[in-house]
């Protein structure tokens, strides 16, 4: 009996080890979803991505496009799709008023933050969803169309299935955090294509840069539209801590439209710049009908990964791979920004076409908070040459490696 007991324990232990190993293997895709992509100044961690030819639905480029991911405000693309359906069916018109319940007004930012009893038009609502990613507006649309946001989310998921988005589940209309609300780059690309194809009469709203509410102009816009002008013509960005910075973009060159999706960046500017590079590479590829179609990709594996744990999400982070040029620390933001602008101009004068990024760093000291003027994400040669030029003129400039740009940033007081 004792021998049997030991054998049983041993067998159970081996079974447990096998199960743990299987769990470990199943968890590998989630970690693998975040991997480096190239940038001019060094590798950048990023999540899944995909580029689709609009006319043929062929996949030109992709990585982990079937992996689960949190959509964040890309959720609003489906909200808008259903609003377009309602407009086409005549159940909504652009001039109809859109009211806000207490539930809608209580949503977290970004939002319009209207007063009780205040309303906007359906058209203003569409503009606010794109230009300001307004969470209260998304909820207001859901309640207007389906009676409650929960019922509207069911319609969103049903619509996703009808479009072939087999791994997408919606729980709300705005994309605020919900662990059960997930999508994939594959599914999101399908939705992007459908918005252009099914509603050409309304698609132009995805290039909205601002909305006028009363006397106030509101809008964050989609910076990718400017970065990839004149080719880019729309879609949407999204961010929550867990998802990182997501984007869907559409662009037309020489009469050919592509739709691209990129997830999981740690900074919005790195996301936008990557999408530009992705489009440039994809437009150079030909489609002859023999590439895999977007709906043929394996869907729903692994994840979702967490890009920014909530403990890291709100702090100041240097997320760039490139070097930084520290040009001194000053008493106010305006002075620091002026110094930054002069540094950028000097980089151009030295012959560099790729300039750095603005990074004005607040640094707390005994005499209050000062502002460090920093040109971020430079290629090493650019940072070194700029500082050598400054130092030859007896001006302050220090090159900082990305590894040195870590909190609490006390070393930037001078």
Secondary-structure topology with pairs:
Elements: H1 2-32, E1 35-37, E2 44-46, E3 49-53, E4 59-63, H2 75-89, E5 97-98, H3 102-105, E6 120-121, H4 122-131, H5 135-146, H6 149-163, H7 185-198, E7 211-213, E8 216-218, H8 224-227, E9 232-240, E10 244-253, E11 256-265, H9 268-283, H10 310-313, E12 323-330, H11 333-349, E13 357-365, E14 368-378, H12 380-392, E15 398-400
Antiparallel strand pairs: 1-2, 3-4, 3-11, 5-6, 7-8, 9-10, 10-11, 12-14, 12-15, 13-14
Helix pairs in contact: 2-5, 4-5, 5-6
Describe this entry's structure for a reader.
- There is one protein chain.
- Helix content is 37%, strand content 21%.
- It is built from 12 helices and 15 strands.
- The protein is α+β, with helices and mostly antiparallel strands and 414 residues long.
- It has helices at 2-32, 75-89, 102-105, 122-131, 135-146, 149-163, 185-198, 224-227, 268-283, 310-313, 333-349, 380-392; strands at residues 35-37, 44-46, 49-53, 59-63, 97-98, 120-121, 211-213, 216-218, 232-240, 244-253, 256-265, 323-330, 357-365, 368-378, 398-400.
- Helix 2 (75-89) crosses helix 5 (135-146).
- The radius of gyration is 24 Å and the shape is globular.
- The chain has a 5-stranded antiparallel beta sheet with strand order 4-3-11-10-9, with helices on both faces. It has a 4-stranded antiparallel beta sheet with strand order 13-14-12-15, with helices on one face.
């Amino acid at each position: 009996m004792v021998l049997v007991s030991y054998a049983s324990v041993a067998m159970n232990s081996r079974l447990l080890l096998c199960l743990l190993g299987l769990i470990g293997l199943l968890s590998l895709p989630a970690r693998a979803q975040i991997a480096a992509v190239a940038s001019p100044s060094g590798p950048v961690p990023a999540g899944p991505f995909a580029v689709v030819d609009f006319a043929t639905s062929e996949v030109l480029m992709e990585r982990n496009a079937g992996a689960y991911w949190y959509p964040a405000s890309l959720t609003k693309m489906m909200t808008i799709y259903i609003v377009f359906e309602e407009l086409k069916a005549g159940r909504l018109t652009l001039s109809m008023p859109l009211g806000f319940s207490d539930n809608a007004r209580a949503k977290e930012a970004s939002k319009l933050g209207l007063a009780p009893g205040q309303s906007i038009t359906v058209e203003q609502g569409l503009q606010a969803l794109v230009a300001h990613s307004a969470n209260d507006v998304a909820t207001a649309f859901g309640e207007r169309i389906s009676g409650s946001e929960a019922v509207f989310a069911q319609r969103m998921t049903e619509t996703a299935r009808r479009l072939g988005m087999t791994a997408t589940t919606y729980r709300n209309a705005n994309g605020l955090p919900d662990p059960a609300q997930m999508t994939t780059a594959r599914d999101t690309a399908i939705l992007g294509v459908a918005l252009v194809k099914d509603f050409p009469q309304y698609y132009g709203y995805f290039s909205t840069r601002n909305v006028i509410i009363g006397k106030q102009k509101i809008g964050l816009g989609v910076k990718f539209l400017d970065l990839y002008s004149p080719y880019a013509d729309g879609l949407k960005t999204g961010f929550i801590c867990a998802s990182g910075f997501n984007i869907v973009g559409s662009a037309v060159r020489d009469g050919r439209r592509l739709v691209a999706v990129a997830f999981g960046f740690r900074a919005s500017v790195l996301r936008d710049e990557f999408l530009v590079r992705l489009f440039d590479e994809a437009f150079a590829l030909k489609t002859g009908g023999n590439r895999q179609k977007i709906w043929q990709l394996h869907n729903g594996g692994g994840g979702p990964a967490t890009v920014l744990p909530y403990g890291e999400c709100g702090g100041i982070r240097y997320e760039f791979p490139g070097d930084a040029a520290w040009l001194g620390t000053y008493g106010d933001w305006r002075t620091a920004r002026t110094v930054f602008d002069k540094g950028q101009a000097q980089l151009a004068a030295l012959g560099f076409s790729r300039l750095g990024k603005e990074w004005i760093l607040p640094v707390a000291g005994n005499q209050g908070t000062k502002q460090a003027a920093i040109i971020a994400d430079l290629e090493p040669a650019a940072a070194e040459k700029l500082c050598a030029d400054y130092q030859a003129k007896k001006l302050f400039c220090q090159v900082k490696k990305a590894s040195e740009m870590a909190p609490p940033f006390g070393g930037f007081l001078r």
